[in-house]
Amino acid sequence: MDNPFEMVFGIILVIAIASVLKSRFRAKNGIIEDRKGNVIATQDPDSEKLREEVQYLKERVATLEKIATDDRGARQLTDEIEKLRDR
């Protein structure tokens, strides 16, 4: 490398390749960053599935609370529980 421009070009090439690989890694792992390079958030691939499951469980708990707090007789309560089991 007799020419200093070749060395500069080589350094720029290495930096560009490293930047592309870094961006690819971050995109693959769901890491979001701002223009300054600060990590804003990370996205878990299972987060949407977990949100849906939490919503489902909240609905189930609300139904069970409703059944437990209603002023109905024991027979009606037993019927409601059996209906929920059949789902």
TrEMBL record:
The chain crosses the membrane at residues 6-25. Keywords: Membrane, Transmembrane, Transmembrane helix. It comes from the Bacteria. The keyword Transmembrane helix applies. This is Phage shock protein B.
